[in-house]
Amino acid sequence: MTSTIKLFMPLLPILRYPDSRLKKIAVPISLIDDRIRKLASDMAETMYEAPGIGLAATQVDVHKQLIVIDASETRDQLLVLINPELIECNGAQVSEEGCLSVPGIYDKVERAERVVVRYLDLHGSPQKIAAEGLLAVCLQHEMDHLKGKVFVEHLSSLKQTRIKAKLLKQSRITA
Ligand code: NI
User: Fold this and answer.
1) pLDDT tens digits, one per residue of 65-74
2) Mean pLDDT, to the nearest integer, of 120-126?
3) How far is ligand 1, taken at its centre, from the CA of residue 106, in Å?
4) Does the annotation count 142 as an active-site position?
């Protein structure tokens, strides 16, 4: 509806597919200290600014199990999940996904329809979230990042090759 001229770069630089650092496996966070709290708040700011509905630490080249998500329409339901673990998943849904690390590319991916995820909040307290629809997709997408997996890896190898070529070409132009 409105077009906004972007004056600021996102706060944290986001790795772009096919950067090999997106393949790193994130390690669990054992101590939730000020550095982790600062990382979570910088990631949230970066996600809102981008704008996106989720961001995994992997995407900002920090290989720790931390994700931020806000899949609400009002953009005021920030979730910070530390060491998230999928403990239940049911059903299937196919929806179009995109990713801040794969700019301009959207494609259909099949995911579980409903999930339950266990995680630690910023106070180190164990939490559980049951989600369906978009939030469930977002949780699965971000948790994939922590395992070194980008959503395009759910697509055919032909599509992956095309996407890689397209993004490499773009990065040569903008570099
Ligand atoms: Ni992503």
Assistant:
1) 999 999 999 9
2) 97
3) 11
4) yes
